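Retro notes (design track)

What went well: tokenization of the new backbones is finally stable.
What didn't: we kept losing track of which sequence belonged to which structure.
Fix going forward: every design gets posted as structure first, then sequence, in one message. First example under the new rule, 284 residues:
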């Protein structure tokens, strides 16, 4: 197969991004998805599934820090965490920075992604896959939450977009099944797309989470290679106080947690829940 000079993202028919391909490190169709890992001068190693950028070495920390530390520090005593998806390992790396986390279960539908990323994106998992607290389950996340008798303090849906195998992770049934896997004050957070170009994902999750959780909200962070502006993260919990903690309390917990970040700060944590009008207008 001829190595492409450029990677053209195909997520939107009328709007896209182009990344120059310096070198293709791996390309293959797994049983679930078409996977490519290549090098780009600006963002380092890039992984794409089915023509859509999943993660890059240059900006993955923004996404993984915000999806891991916001719910775990807001919860305050998270010891059992579930990641659905997360095949590249970046989310596991950030979750396991928390000493309070005693057990991390990662449910990934495509073992091939984990294998490739362990080899070609080693800085993403950075040893998390070998942490004794880490448990990998290769199955559909939708099936797992329906059948497991485990309970989790935080559930992180680090999925692809709602197309292909990821589509089931954006349904009301899935959100309801996640609720049944959460402990009393448990928190669910979800990869919920870029509202400027995928606003329907926020509206859909708002409608589908609403009947099952007392507090549903969204928070934002801008990840350059998730094109179109700030990305939304869904937030759903029955603990209506968790989202309202003052910066000083988050700061105290962050200091106690005692680890380094490159994007996340307690002030950013609290500010991320402030929604611009075009996003809050999607919560109908
Ligand atoms: N950070 C990326 C993003 O925001 O789009 C996603 C990271 S990760 C690569 C997404 C993972 O979700 C992939 O490894 C994919 O195999 C996995 N996935 C997709 N559908 C799934 C499902 N139904 N159950 C479990 N994992 C799934």
């Amino acid at each position: 197969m001829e190595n492409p000079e450029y990677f053209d993202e195909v997520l939107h028919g009328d709007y896209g991004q182009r990344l120059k391909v310096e070198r293709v490190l791996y390309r293959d169709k797994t049983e679930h998805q078409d996977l490519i890992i290549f090098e780009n001068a600006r963002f380092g190693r890039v992984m794409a599934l089915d023509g859509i950028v999943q993660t890059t070495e240059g900006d993955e920390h923004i996404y993984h820090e915000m999806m891991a530390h916001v719910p775990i520090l807001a919860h305050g005593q998270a010891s059992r965490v579930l990641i659905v998806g997360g095949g590249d390992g970046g989310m596991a790396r950030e979750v396991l920075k928390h000493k309070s986390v005693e057990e991390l279960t990662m449910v990934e539908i495509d073992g091939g992604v984990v294998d490739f990323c362990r080899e070609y994106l080693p800085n993403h998992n950075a040893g998390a896959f070998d942490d004794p607290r880490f448990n990998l389950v290769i199955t559909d996340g939708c099936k797992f939450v329906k059948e497991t008798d485990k309970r989790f303090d935080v559930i992180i849906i680090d999925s692809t977009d709602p197309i292909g195998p990821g589509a089931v992770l954006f349904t009301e049934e899935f959100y309801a099944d996640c609720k049944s896997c959460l402990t009393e004050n448990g928190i669910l957070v979800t990869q919920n797309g870029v509202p400027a170009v995928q606003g329907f994902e926020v509206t859909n999750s708002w409608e589908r989470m609403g009947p099952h959780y007392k507090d549903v909200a969204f928070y934002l962070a801008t990840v350059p290679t998730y094109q179109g502006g700030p990305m939304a993260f869904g937030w759903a919990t029955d603990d209506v106080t968790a989202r309202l903690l003052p910066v000083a309390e988050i700061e105290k917990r962050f200091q106690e947690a005692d680890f380094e970040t490159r994007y996340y700060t307690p002030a950013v944590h609290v500010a991320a829940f402030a929604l611009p009008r075009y996003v809050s207008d999607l919560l109908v």
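Added context from the reviewer: Residues 60-75 form the longest helix (16 residues).
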